């Protein structure tokens, strides 16, 4: 990529409420993610942070102070701030022990609230900006601070099965239960207008997602007139009366503006594709981050505000892109298919398997798709059962069991594309990260005759072992998916665990893992690699000295290059090696394991209310 800044995270620059020309964003700096300011009036950026391991979390408050999270190699640290134009940085609050970032909120009156986790519980601290903190709440498990009222009177904390509204002194004003998979509730922040404490929420009601609000005195109100059939998120407009709603549907996005007082819902025109983020800024300017498979992300302003220039690619993004729908037991399975320009006959194909599982592939630019299509591969992105963007029933459809349901969809799409003459049956690879890497390993072991190569990056390889050593939030996710712990339902964990099928793997495999990965811990990956060695399965391994959500650019490039070379050799190489026959599994190991240790920064990230491995 050339020109502009490599912006990290799919989010808009944050804008100062009192001076919309002042913004904060995160971008690449010598292969690390760092925090920058952007002065739209002067069209000038300034790098704020220069940390050896990079900096992912940044923000700006009403007084144009720039905030960032100063973390160590384990992801634990403190919030700090400095003036927009530069100067010495200061701790956001004093007398606060280090912790994992679980949210920052700064009121219009410079009251600061921070939530920090310790792996077992979440603690909320409140105090004046730069001053002494007082602890106002502590809750077991993973929780996220989702907002503070403009005057600092109320706080919202999401976690432990509920959205809790607290006073600034820690007194509980309301507890709004989260119904779990049968009726989730998401907290999206307080109204920026006034200090009456109106809290914006999204509520899952049967097969719909509905806007809701909570007010002191009147309680929870569900706005049935503002309902959607697939997942939404929303943000207050500055007037505190209307809300900008972003809907994810069938791999693409749509914007709507809801006027809560007038009870009207109006579409907001945007180009076809994916809106990674959108927000109404002071003065009514709409900023959005747009992309499509053939178009790298672009920041846009409806009023011509100068925004940071994002990187682009030299020339046209190669390939043609289309949708494919494959019949399935719970409804058609949607696939985003990318093909090289002017393909000749069936092509070698790579299935890019998304993680989550509560996530989905989008009509959005992806550098991996670009690289593979430019190399002559068909790229297949399947939104299997369990994906978001297709409604609550699809997200809960695990009828064949955890992982096995998703593998069934991958196999069905493969058969469909082969039957259509689009891909070669003898040259199909899999590539996935995190939960996507888990599905790669499970597919290779449970349906070994369908795949000719696999790449699994930071995967779950042993479900029971991962449960014992992962984070509390992901242990809770496992228990919801499996219906209990490994001690309570051991047969379910074993049936869905890749290590149970390691000896059946026939395709060559590349496994990339991280030595400080808290979500998909390295120990269970090492156990899986040992099982492959014992079975004589041809494989390679690549070890990164980082965490699960590492944001060091060099690591991403290393994995990309290694994986593309591996897939090219195994799927298209002139002397492509045959799969290991079962008769050769005993005796001498035929292992081609190459381990690369790289010293790279560790980073951890956390989804506020939907724990996911990636």
Assign a percent range to the helix content: 10-25%
Taking the sheet with the most strands, its summary is: 9 strands, mixed
Physical arrangement of strands within the biggest beta sheet? 28-29-31-30-32-33-34-35-36
Q: If you compute it from the alpha carbons, what radius of gyration comes out, rounded to the nearest whole angstrom?
A: 24 Å
Kindly report the average pLDDT value.
89
Unreliable segments (pLDDT under 50, ≥5 consecutive)?
Answer: 1-9, 575-610
- Tell me the strand percentage band: 35-45%
**How would you name the oligomeric state of the polypeptide chains in this document?**
single chain
Overall strand count: 36
Number of helices: 9
The chain-level structural class is: alpha+beta
**Rough outline:** globular
Distance between the termini: 25 Å
Would you give an account of this structure?
This protein is α+β, with helices and mostly antiparallel strands and 614 residues long. The chain contains nine helices and 36 strands. α3 crosses α4 (435-446). The longest helix is centred in the last third of the chain and has 20 residues, at 553-572. Residues 1-9 and 575-610 have low confidence and may be disordered.
